[in-house]
Amino acid sequence: MEKMKRIERVIAMTKIFIDHPHHLFPYKYFCDRFNVAKSTLSEDVSAIKFSMENFGMGHLETMPGANGGVWFVPDSTDQEDQDFLLDVAKQLSNPDRILPGNLIYMTDLLCDPQIVSRLGEIFMKKLHYLKPDCIMTVETRGIPLALLVARAFNVPLVMARHGSFVTEGSSVSINYVSGSAKTIQTMAMPKRALHPKENVLIIDDLMKGGGTAHGLVKLAEELGANVVGKAFLIEAVEPTKKIISNYTALLRLYKIDEINNKIDIRPI
Amino acid sequence: MEKMKRIERVIAMTKIFIDHPHHLFPYKYFCDRFNVAKSTLSEDVSAIKFSMENFGMGHLETMPGANGGVWFVPDSTDQEDQDFLLDVAKQLSNPDRILPGNLIYMTDLLCDPQIVSRLGEIFMKKLHYLKPDCIMTVETRGIPLALLVARAFNVPLVMARHGSFVTEGSSVSINYVSGSAKTIQTMAMPKRALHPKENVLIIDDLMKGGGTAHGLVKLAEELGANVVGKAFLIEAVEPTKKIISNYTALLRLYKIDEINNKIDIRPI
C-alpha cells in the first residue's frame, strides 16, 4: 500500500481503536498496516490522544517495551454522563410505564443499542479499577446491558440461566430466593463458561432485595470464580433491607405510585 | 470553544460517526459543536469519507436539503468478512465443542462482544436493503447477536420470551413446534414492544428445522408487524425439510460426528 496523508491514516486508526476498546495493539501492527515508520506513527498516536482527551471522548494509553503498544479507553465527561442518566431517568419516569404489581416496563430502553452502549461505557468508567476478566448476568432482561458493559471492558459475557439447558453441557446450579417472587428459584451456569480464579463483575438491570444478585455471587463462587463487583442500572429503595452490600448503582427508584400515577426515579 | 486544527476535529468527528452508525447528523450539529463554517465542515466530511472508503471501513452518506445531513454506514471488505467467518467456523469446528445429543457448545462465541459486533456488521451489510425498523429474536442464546445486529442497523431490539412475564405487561403469545424438542412450546411478546406495520428482521443463532423462526414470524404477524427478513448465524443441513424459506445464513453446519469426534461447519 502506498503512503498516504496523515489525516487519512489517523481517521482509519481512530476507527480501529474505537472498534476495539481496551485492545492492546503493538506499534508494529499499525506500522505494517499503514506502511509508516514508528516515529511517524508516534505522531499519529499523539494527535489521536490529544483530540480524544481534548473532547473528553477517551484516552490512548501506551505501554513501552517489546510487548508494549497502545490501546484505547473510551471516556465521556461527567456532565455528559449526568445528562444522559437524567434523560434515562426521565424516560423511565413516564407514568405509562407503570405495570400492575409495582413494576415498571423498561425492556424497550434496555433493548435500545444506543442507550445500553452509553450505559456500558458509564459502568466501565466507574468500575475500571476492578479489572474484571468477565461480566456475569442472568437471563433475560439484563443481557443487552451486560453485553455492552462487557464490550466496553473488552471481556466476555457469561450468562446464568433459569434451570439447566441441554445445549450448554454440564453445568452447576444453585437455588436462590427471589425477593420479588418470594419463591425458591434455580439458576445454572455451564461449567465451561467460567474458569476458576476469574475476576467476575456482576451486572443486572434492577436490584430490589438483592436475592438474584446474591444467587449470582453464590453461583460464581461455586465455580471457583472471584466476584470483584456487583453493579446495577437501578437500585430500588424498597425493600430497605438488602441481602447484598458493596454494590454500585446508577439510578435509584424511590417510589412507584400507582394511585397518583407517578414514578420517582433519579440518578444517584 | 476556540477553533482547532483540522486533524483534531476529524478525529473527534470520526468517533461520533462510529459510535452512532446510521444516525443522521445535520451539518449544523457539527458546525455548532466544532465552531466551524459549513464549507470547512464539508472538507472534513470529505476527508473522513475518503479514508473510510479507501480502507473499506465504511461510507459517509449525505442527504442535501433542510432536513439533510450526513451519516455513517460501517463496512468491511468481502475478504475480511470471509476471513472472519472462516475463523468463526474454525473455532466452532473444535471437537471439544461436541455435546451429547448432536449439539455444539457455542455460547462462549455468541457472548464475545468483539465476535458478535463483527457478525452484526456483516448481517447489516448483507441485509441493508431490507431497511428493518427493528430486530426481533427469542431468548436466550441469540440475544447478544441480535442486539449487535440491531446496533449495526441503529434500530431497537425486541425480544420474545418463553412463556409470559409479569414484568412486561400485557402480551400476545403463540404456540409453536420446536423441531429439536419435538414439543409444543409457547413464546410471548409484550404488546407494546412491537408496533403494527413495523418492518421486522428476525435474527437467531441457529436454524435447524425452522420451527422457532416460524414461531417468531407468526408472533410478529399476530402483532400486525411486517416480517421483511429472517437471518441466522448457522443453518443446519439436517433436517433438509425446513418449515421456512427465503432466509439468510452465514455458516452451514453439515455434520456433527460424535463417533469420529468431528464437526463440519463452513461459511456459505
Question: What features would you describe in this structure?
Answer:
- Two copies of one chain form a homodimer.
- In chain A, 36% of the residues lie in helices and 29% in strands.
- With 268 residues, chain A is an alpha/beta fold.
- The longest helix of chain A is centred in the N-terminal third of the chain and has 17 residues, at 38-54.
- The radius of gyration of chain A is 21 Å and the shape is globular.
- In chain A, 44% of the residues are buried.
- At the A-B interface, helix 1, helix 3, helix 6, helix 7 and strand 6 of A face helix 1, helix 3, helix 6, helix 7 and strand 6 of B.
Which of globular, elongated, flat, extended, rod-shaped describes the shape of chain A?
globular
For the secondary structure, the number of strands of chain A is 12
- Give the helix proportion of chain A (percent range): 25-40%
Determine the oligomeric state from the structure: homodimer
Name the helix and strand elements of chain A from N-terminus to C-terminus, one letter apiece: HHHEEHEEHHEHEEEEHEEE
Beta fraction of chain A: 25-35%
Average pLDDT, all residues of chain A: 93
Identify the most extensive interface between protein chains: A-B, 58 and 58 residues
